[in-house]
Write a structure and sequence with these properties.
Order of helices and strands: HHEEEEHHHHHHHHHHHHHHH
Number of helices: 17
Radius of gyration: 26 Å
Shape: elongated
Helix content: 55-70%
Largest sheet: 2 strands, antiparallel
Strand content: under 5%
Length: 412
């Protein structure tokens, strides 16, 4: 029953997390587009009010005319909408999901003993430290270099190095799938912290100054804008890290840390294209297409680099697996051979004593019933055994694949 309720918690939290993330990312993308598309106002009355930019748009059968005040409007409206619940809700639901999916079962999902054989409590503390340490270092970089000459470039370069170091450490300390998710959650935490510690407090200060009739310090708007821009560049790398847990060929790669870095870099480069394309249409900057081409080239390069290399001799692979301690497949597709693999690699978690996910595989009837899931999890996605804790071999996965493609027979 515990596994059943955890699955429901995972599903519902994931649902909420995706919904709130869509709201946050959508508003972030829209305001980046809006800022990049604003043009100087033509109406003299708008100019007198201090409007620095305007945009005419049509959507959903109506026309919209948003305007932006450079520092502050002449007066505040009665109802002022604040954009912060999307960020906070996304982080809270994401952290709850990370807790249910990884921290609660750290020994199963977070720890890979072939990398670091530490106690669950230690692994949890170190994982949480990634969130705190990354934010503190990132924030210090922004504080120290953000307002200096070429500050944006310096901050970008240093943050990239920081992400690379964090990715390398995570992939060498934790299970591959957990490491990718941890890095994504780490960056997402910094994004939400930007909103919580800088963007919203700065906006509240500006509102308070306007209400008090005091001069508005433009530094708050500049800082908020800087952190907001950082967040938009973080978005695509975070989304890749979150989605990658469904594709084991990424996080199970021997150089998975490099895979993560390359794909996040590609995402940031492609995001740069979308950020600059609106300004390009208005003649404010050059053609940003090279950024997109660089991002696509990195992705294509990763695809070519990571492509699976078929073994030169399948029989030699099977024999080598047997010599290394694996179950000798013998090139057969019968149930007896598959059962030997399941007994050695799967019964520990899906046998008579333990039935993780309410799944047993210790009888022909149950194996036949779950043949599709076995094939998908073991052969196609290579998600099981979790973190390959029982050291299943490629030859044994191939054996299960041939057995399934032959109709998944279970007769003796």
């Amino acid at each position: 029953m515990e596994s059943y309720f955890l699955d429901w918690a995972n599903l519902l939290l994931r649902w909420v997390h995706v919904i709130t993330a869509i709201a946050w990312i959508g508003s972030s993308f829209y305001f980046v587009f809006l800022d990049s598309s604003l043009t100087p106002p033509e109406d003299e009355d708008l100019k007198k009010q201090g409007v620095s930019g305007e945009l005419w748009a049509v959507h959903g059968g109506g026309f919209y005319h948003p305007v932006k005040f450079a520092v502050s409007p002449p007066q505040l409206p009665k109802h002022l909408h604040w954009f912060f619940w999307e960020s906070y809700s996304t982080w809270i639901s994401g952290f709850a999901l990370f807790t249910v999916s990884y921290l609660y079962s750290a020994s199963t999902y977070l720890i890979d003993k072939s990398k670091m054989d530490w106690a669950p409590a230690t692994a949890i503390v170190v994982a949480l430290a990634f969130f705190v340490v990354f934010w503190l270092l990132y924030d210090a970089i922004c504080r120290i270099f953000g307002q200096k000459k070429n500050g944006d470039a310096i901050v970008g370069a240093l943050v990239f190095v920081l992400v690379c170091v964090a990715s390398w450490l995570a992939c060498h300390w934790f299970a591959g799938r957990a490491a990718f998710l941890l890095v994504g959650a780490m960056i997402a935490t910094a994004m939400s912290a930007n909103v919580f510690f800088w963007i919203i407090p700065g906006q509240r200060t500006v509102v308070a100054q306007i209400k008090a009739g005091q001069p508005v310090d433009p530094i708050h708007g500049k800082r908020g804008k800087q952190r907001s821009v950082h967040n938009t560049y973080f978005t695509l790398p975070v989304l890749f890290a979150m989605l990658s847990n469904h594709y084991s060929f990424t996080w199970s790669h021997p150089q998975n840390w490099l895979v993560l870095i390359l794909m996040m870099f590609a995402g940031a480069a492609i995001r740069q294209f979308f950020v600059m394309r609106h300004g390009y249409k208005l003649g404010r900057n050059g053609n940003p297409l090279p950024y997109a081409l660089v991002g696509v080239a990195v992705i294509v390069g990763a695809i070519v680099w990571m492509r699976p290399v078929p073994p030169a001799n399948a029989n030699a692979t099977v024999s080598g697996a047997a010599d290394a301690g694996g179950v000798s497949a013998g090139g057969q597709n019968d149930y007896k051979s598959v059962q030997a693999v399941l007994e050695q690699r799967c019964y520990l978690c899906h046998g008579e004593a333990v039935q993780m996910k309410n799944l047993r595989l210790d009888s022909p009837e149950l194996v036949k019933q779950h043949a599709q899931a076995i094939y998908q999890q073991v052969v196609v996605q290579k998600l099981m055994p979790m973190n390959n804790s029982t050291q299943i071999t490629d030859a044994e996965r191939a054996l299960i694949g041939r057995w399934f493609e032959a109709g998944a027979p279970t007769a003796p």
